[in-house]
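Notebook B, p. 112. Complex prediction, attempt 2.
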Amino acid sequence: MDSKLYLAENVLNERHAVTYRSLSRALKVPANRAKQVLFEFHRNENAKKPQTVHATYVISGIQKAPEPAPTNGHANDEDEIMQSSPDLPSSMPNQDASSYSTRIASIILAREEDLEDAKSTFQSISTIHVYSIEPTPLPDLNVLVDVSREIATKYAQEDPLECGKQWGMIQNRNVKRRTGTRPPPPPAAKAQAPAAKAPRPSIESTVPAKRPLQKEVDPAKVETKTDDPNSQPSTSANSQSSSKSAAKAAPAKKGSLFSSFAKAKPKQKTAAPAELSTEDVVLDDASEEEPEELFPDSGDKAAAANRESRKEREEKLKKMMDDDEADDEEMPDADEEPSREPTPIEQPPLSKPVELKEEVTVQGGRRRGKRQVMKKKTVKDEEGYLVTREEASWESFSEDEPAPKKKPAVNVPKGKAGKAGQGQGNIMSFFGKK
Amino acid sequence: MKSDNDYGFLCPPSKEEQEQEPVYRAPSFYNPLHTFHLPAGQGRHYKQQYGDMYFLRLAKLKPSVEQVATDAWDGLIIAGEKVRRVDRVLDVRQGELCWVAGTVYMDLPMKPNILDDLTKENFTSAPPPRRTYTDPLDPSLTQIMLEDESGRLRLTGNFLRTTQLATGAIIAALGTENANGDFEVIDIKLPDLAPQPQRWEGTSQNGPSTEKQSGKIAFVSGLGITGTSSDTLTLELLTDYLLGYTGFSGHDENSPSTSSSKITRLIIAGNSLGASVTTEAASAGSDKAAIAKKAMPKKYGYDASAYNASPITQLDNFLAEILPSIPVTLMPGDKDPANFSLPQQGIHRAMFPQARAYSAPPPRGEDKPEAGWFDSVTNPWEGDVEGWRVWGCSGQNVDDVLRYLNFESTELSLEGDTDDSESRVRVMEAMLRWRCGVPTAPDTIWSYPFQMDDPFVLQTCPHIFFAGNQPQFRTATIQGDVPLRLDGDTDMMDAKDNYDGSRVRLLAIPKFNETGELILVDTETLEVEVVKFGVFKGREEQK
């Protein structure tokens, strides 16, 4: 039988303690059945060879009062009508009755050895069941806490709303739970908590690859993403509105910072998800929007599937890491969100589509990335003409920067400057190269 | 071992997999009131003077207490002199029998004084808690004064010895001013219980009044999770019980009928976390200055590496585990990560990465925040649960009022009993009769400086009035006044059966980490039951 095998393996071989709840979870049986399974195992094993397994029991019922009080009992009327007087009288006639007449039921955990003693403290016993079995007597029952904490981490993926029934949990028809991504699994163990920082980046770096739906999103269409339910399943209305407002705010910034990102057309495969997910990281403190999308819970599955691509990327990342430092000091700006507004003018003048790559990594919880952008270079050739060329080059960006945008204004001044600066071409080309 | 089979689970599992009928929990009718909700962010100011609160409280309660006093004393003639009503404290004339209403102010020798703190320049740390503000050796140092917007009047007289008062209570006092300029009190009146709503009155939906299905409301306080494994075994048993894994089979007639599926809601009344998260200042210590100094660097020299997240993680796990089955109302306490001054605002859901999935979405704009399945509420808190009006605090109010009173020196010493749980219930009763849930705020309990409203005044009388984190479980029922109060217990006892006036269930909820007790209140009768969780310590002593 499956349960016997499980118990033999865990209790006898691995020498773990097994509680009825951990058994119930492992075998997917109701808790009440798990109690019986534990009892049977305990009895059978000890019949074969005494003292192989030990048990703890839970006794529920009504305990005898520590020192028998005369009023103890099942008096139904525990009401004490306090003297109705306005000013805290110093004598309360009925006060003796009030504390003892309330029915006190007890649920007590006891070791096997103490079972009879414990039972003798009860006036009436409602149920006794096995709580746990373990290979040796427990010097400290608190060990059992670790078993249940293990449950919490081991079966964190199981939705209690769906699986509760099979464990025998009391169901509730009215549970309200917010939709959205599942909460993150709790940290694996207390001991690992300090180390949790380290593995996180790798988990997060798989985020883009985990969103197959978004892979196909054309950057040119990205601006419609707030309307597209697929592109970001858990986008709340909050982020919608904020991204809209950001879109409004964005044009004001156009001229300054991003004019150098000319004609960026990120490579389709990875760029779009990466840009979208940068938005996830933006933590809007003011609106108290919770970053639940931040830690999707599928670390394992996705990691396995994407290990290959991740390795590749990590290698590349290593190469470029040294360029990254410049951005480290940037503070996340709550309002800023990637807003892409490609307009016809922004299309690269070159008819040949240029493939650009983009890499995203995470350092200390912040998203960093590199992307390949096309930069214009204006040089004077041998014959003295100014020649404008486009070259692919790498540059780093951080989470809060919007995706590269092209300004109509960018080309015009440059062209003009090139013409006007015929005589001083050297200086212009010097700045242009930057 | 012969009777083991009677207990249900001490038998091998039956061969055939019997399909278990899922047990469903009774629905919970819940409507939290946002009485103590402070405006967020910009709307919260700390520059106002506290005097407004006393002014508002007096303005609100003076009519009530004057009504009570007028009913009792109007036309009363004592020793040939007619009792006269005086509007303002300063209008009391010497030798004249009169009554006046005002706010009680008590000057106690050990009371923390902000001016002392300022002169010592250590006002940045919380005054360490004291067991009492009174000086039992010299009760004469205690001065009780009655004040209103005009001035103060010192109260005196033997009557006050049998009366327990605390700062902030609104009373009417009958007496006469003596040669010293003190007011000899011969009787006082309190506002008494506020009007009590009918059951279901506060809720829009009219409840399942047709089906008389009795449920239970569970109260627990002082979970005191410290993150070490030692404190959570009873918590595990509590979890098992609430989820229905453990319980009482009920086929024995002696067994309690307490099936946990009847519990419709769990209310956690403060101090869910143990002391290790916050500073140790809260622990009762003798050398206050030393503690205050020690607490300072801890509080401000916050070190992320020294911070232990384990308690809050365990609390989150606990909540996330029970929430799929039972709705939870969580109140902060003085040891929880919330603001310290009352009303404490709910613990932010960002502290609960798992449990917050069950909480209500953040309110948008002007919308009233809706009640979440997991509701992190204020302390004190007021709301309608199963139609009953519930008013509760995590215990600071009772603890503090108790410091004003010298129960210890009077009757309890006679009993040779150090436990003051009786006084605690009596303090709770007094609060209801004072119509003020936290009378000593803002005097000795830190409080938000309310300016427009004093929410601590009980506008309506609750059906269940609870205080968390008390040393012992205690309960009592008090009744409001019959319209014409007769001084005599016999009338009250007779009236008990067919009495339909206000009736309040008082609950002093013990600390779970000390007693392991969960309090269940029946939703139909307001009867109270206790479920105690524990570990049998039989053999441990032998080691």
